[in-house]
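> example.struct
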């Protein structure tokens, strides 16, 4: 289960589809590749069970999956992820960087699917109080990001949803950011890849060095 006595740092990377998260995570992995105290993971997924759930959620053949079923599957994957991977690594003193976390569920299922507070309630149980020390949000116009995503890969089930869905997701992120300014750092994802990478690295290294001395 989650713990308040973590020794490592917990960082999440968020953004709408096509915001450049995949590219930036690849660069981060290269930057930190010789540091054994930094580990990377993703949601949904991160564990054997979580990856099975990921396949269920994102498979375009499961287009008839209901929003509530989707939300509970995300929470189930997250609960396994927290208990099996995130907390043990934090307790071992490692920095955990995850591709998406609770904010994604609130944005996509809470706002996108309009499930509201249900998503927050089930995720409170799923994470047992564990929230990131820092969340980095890659901010990009959702119309630009969606076109990027559709141009560069075969869309998954969520990416097939209408533009109106993705607009609600983006607006949801803006609302989450407004209510969590102390935790969430917004970075302009329309800037160059190198500049975005530098901003992310600077934020992570500042967190580790500053809080590591406190």
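> example.seq
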């Amino acid at each position: 289960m989650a713990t308040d006595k973590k020794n490592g740092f917990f960082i999440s990377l968020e953004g709408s589809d096509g915001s450049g998260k995949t590219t930036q995570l690849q660069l981060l992995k290269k930057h930190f590749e010789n540091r054994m105290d930094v580990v990377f993971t993703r949601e949904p997924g991160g564990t054997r069970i979580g990856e099975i759930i990921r396949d269920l959620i994102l498979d375009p053949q499961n287009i008839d999956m209901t929003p509530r079923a989707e939300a509970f599957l995300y929470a189930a994957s997250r609960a396994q992820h927290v208990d099996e991977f995130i907390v043990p690594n934090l307790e071992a003193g490692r920095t955990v960087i995850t591709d998406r976390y609770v904010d994604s569920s609130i944005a996509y299922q809470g706002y996108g699917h309009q499930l509201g507070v249900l998503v927050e309630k089930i995720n409170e149980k799923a994470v047992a109080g564990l929230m990131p020390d820092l969340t980095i949000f890659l901010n990009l116009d959702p119309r630009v990001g969606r076109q990027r995503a559709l141009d560069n890969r075969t869309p998954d089930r969520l990416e097939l949803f209408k533009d109106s869905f993705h607009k609600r997701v983006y607006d949801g992120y803006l609302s989450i950011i407004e209510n969590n300014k102390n935790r969430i750092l917004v970075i302009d994802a329309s800037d160059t890849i190198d500049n975005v990478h530098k901003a992310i690295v600077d934020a992570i290294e500042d967190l580790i060095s500053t809080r590591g001395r406190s």
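> remarks
The first strand starts at residue 10 and ends at 15.
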